[in-house]
Amino acid sequence: MTGKFTTLAKQLALAAAFGGLPYVAAAHELTLDECLEGSDFIMHAAMSRENGMTREAFLDRMESDIHLIQAFPPELRWFVQDQDDAELLTSAARLVFDSPREPQSHQSEFLAACTARVGSSTDARAELPALRPAAAAETDLSDR
User: Per the CB 3.0–4.6 Å rule, which of 31, 68, 81, 110 could disulfide with 74?
Assistant: First the structure.
């Protein structure tokens, strides 16, 4: 009888290890394009604030939009492919209203935080050269 329980326990352990447990998806790896688009969104949030939109109205609308976006499969979404993306964008939008600064300042801060999350994936490396000429142009302008 003990042998049957041992066999059953082994079978249950194997079933759990190979498919009996829920699948946990890997976190979405942000790209530089997504960071640039997200930074534009945050800049526009600050511009909305400057034009009189309240924190509550903006964040309520944003939360509603995120829920709507999350109804689509992750691969069809723009930015909020997972909860980490949603939290990054939402916390930056909260900061726009909680610590008001110029829109470009919020944009730069978000871009720095977002690009820090960009992994060393092939997509990220492929996008990197597209940003280098702009950085080089800024360096050239500052030398003048």
Answer: 81
DSSP string, 110-127: HHHHHHHH--S-HHHHHH
The predicted model scores a pTM of 0.65
Q: What Rg value do the Cα atoms of the chain yield, rounded?
A: 22
pLDDT digits (tens, 9 = 90+) for 50-78: 999 999 999 999 999 999 988 888 878 77
The three-state secondary structure class of 27 is: coil
Dihedral over Cα of 131, 137, 139, 142: its sign: negative
Query: Cβ distance 30 to 117 under 8 Å?
Result: yes
Q: How far is CA 95 from the centre of its chain?
A: 16
